[in-house]
Amino acid sequence: PNPTTSVKLVLLGEAAVGKSSLVLRFVSNEFQENKEPTIGAAFLTQKCTIGSKVIKYEIWDTAGQERFASLAPMYYRNAQAAIVVYDITKPASFIKARHWVKELHEQASKDITIALVGNKYDLVKNDSGEEDDSENSLRKVSIEEGQNLADEEGILFFETSAKDGFNVNEVFIGIGNHIPES
Ligand code: GDP
Ligand code: MG
Question: How many CB atoms lie within 10 A of CB 46?
Fold first, then answer.
């Protein structure tokens, strides 16, 4: 059997960007249209096989509400990986994501692997499944803005949809490939 590496991972981001939905998609391959808000934090685990290595993710899914923000350090302090989520239709959530990335670089472990994730990609697709590039598009944060922030901060970047599953496993595989061998 392949050795299993445990990786502590924390999700951060504004309320309602889809943190819990990304975890639910990754862990159970499900989606709930009206997901109840997380209170405090939720803990879940999921194994992920990448080539010959098996990673057991120990996931802390935090609450995005401001009143819980002071608890976040408790969850990211010992984390080896963090996913910072924003909603590509909500510019304020991108500003919040930028703050989280900076805070992680100042306060978290030096070798933490961070992924920036722009979620709700399904909302900017048209009926033929392509991205709606008309002026009616719901997209408010461009892919370039996301990629630029990630490049500036030296972190991974993905756009995802927890609703249709687009790119969700790729986030966890990307993190797993980036985690230093221990
Ligand atoms: P959290 O507060 O960041 O954990 O966000 P939730 O996972 O609770 O999701 C907030 C709301 O957004 C819920 O109504 C979800 O069903 C919805 N949602 C989450 N992810 C997506 C997505 O990828 N696409 C769409 N259209 N809605 C989503
Ligand atoms: Mg939640």
Answer: 15
ipTM > 0.90 for the complex: yes
pLDDT in tens, 99-156: 999 999 999 999 999 999 999 999 999 888 899 999 899 999 999 999 999 999 999 9
Integer angstrom CA distances of residue 54 from 57, 79, 97, 113, 170: 10, 18, 29, 17, 15
Alpha-carbon gap, residue 136 to 120, rounded angstroms:
16
Our mutation pick for probing the ligand 1 site, out of 35, 36, 67, 158, counting the most ligand atoms within 8 A of Cβ, is: 35
Cα 3 to ligand 1 centroid, rounded to whole Å: 34
Give the residue whose CA is nearest to atom 9 of ligand 1.
18
Task: Report residues near ion ligand 2: CB below 5 Å.
Answer: 19-20, 38
- C-alpha 107: how far from its chain's center? 18
Measured in Å, residue 35 CA sits from the centre of ligand 1 at: 7
Model confidence, pTM: 0.97
- Which ligand 1 atom lies nearest to the CA of residue 121? 23
Cα-based angle 134, 137, 143 (whole degrees, multiple of 5) = 100
Closest CA to 28 of 20, 18, 40: 20
Query: For residue 142, what are its two tokens?
Result: 């461009």
CA–CA separation, 8 vs 146, rounded Å?
Answer: 24
